[in-house]
Each structure stands twice: as C-alpha cells, then as structure tokens.
Amino acid sequence: GSFSSADEVIRKRLLIDGDGAGDDRRINLLVKSFIKWCNSGSQEEGYLQYQRMLSTLSQCEFSMGKTLLVYDMNLREMENYEKIYKDIGKHEKIIAAAHEKISECKKQILQAKRIRKNRQEYDALAKVIQHHPDRHETLKQLEALGKELQNLSHIKENVEDKLELRRKQFHVLLSTIHELQQTLENDEKLSEAEESQETQMEAEAKQ
C-alpha cells in the first residue's frame, strides 16, 4: 500500500540521489568521509576525516532523534484520535438512544392525549345519558301513555255516542213538539169553526 510505495521512494533516493538533501545526503557524506579516512595519507588528513565522520554521525543521530520524536508524537496523536473516535462512537450511541427515548416519549404523549380525549368524550356522553331516562323507564312511560291514549279514545267514543243519542232524542223531541203544535193549531181552528157554527145557529134560531 502507501507504506511500501514510500519505502520504494526512500530506497531509490538512497541509491540514486547522492546529492540530495536530508538523511541520504548525510549518509553519502559519511560514506565518502569513511573512504577518504581509509585512504588518508597523513595523520592530520585522517583526523580531519574522522571529525567529519563524527559530525555527520551527530547530525544523523540528531535527525534520527527528531524523527523518533515526530514518530512518537504521531503515535500519541493517533492514539488520541482513536480515543476521540471511540468517544464519538459512544456519544453517537448515546445520542441515538436519546433520540429513541424521545421518539418513545412522543408516542406515549400522543397515546396519553388520545386517552384523555376519549375520557373527556366518555364523560360528556355519560352526562348526556344521565340527563335522559333509561330505555326501560322510557318503555314504561310509553306504555302508560299508550294506555292513557286508549282510555281517552274510549271516552271520546262514549261521548260521541252520547252526543249522537242526544241528537236523535232532540230530533224526536222537536218532531213531537212540531206535531203537538200542529195538533194544537188544528184544535184551535176546529174550536173556532165550532164557535162560528154555534153562533150562526143561534142567530138563525132567533129569527
């Protein structure tokens, strides 16, 4: 992966780029100084090459120490990032659980609202029912009203029968009165005729 390709780049720089900067340059200088030290003719030249090698080695050690420090720092940062990542994961789980709890609470609130609404409707219906008689009582009242209506109907029929009887009796009475009146009139006319006849006979007798 990325590490193998990076190793390949470093290897090529160490083998090819002899005049480059950094560790590869210091290593090349160290090798050259060692060769010159081996091939030095005088003690002074050998001592000079020896000092150069020590200086190059010090630079390499310093660079290596700095690299190790950077490496350790990177390791610590990676551990810190991993810890932060784990903490984020924990927080995400906590947040997800909180969302689920909130969702459940919303459902419970909606259910409680429905129950409260239904209870209010039931209470209102119960009050309406309390103000109205039950079916049995209503049927009893209807039965009593039916009987009373039937009695009133019988009374009405009796009254109508009596009225019809009285009407017939009154008609008979009127007829009797009319006949009596005719009889009286006839009797009166007869009496007048008899008196007239008697008067005439008396007058004839006097002559």
From TrEMBL:
Keywords noted in UniProt: Coiled coil, Nucleus
Main localization category: nucleus
Localization per Swiss-Prot or TrEMBL: Nucleus
Single Gene Ontology BP annotation: mRNA processing
Family: Belongs to the THOC7 family.
GO cellular component, one term: THO complex part of transcription export complex
Protein name: THOC7 protein
Residue numbers spanned by region Disordered: 186-207
Function: Component of the THO subcomplex of the TREX complex which is thought to couple mRNA transcription, processing and nuclear export, and which specifically associates with spliced mRNA and not with unspliced pre-mRNA. Required for efficient export of polyadenylated RNA. Plays a key structural role in the oligomerization of the THO-DDX39B complex.
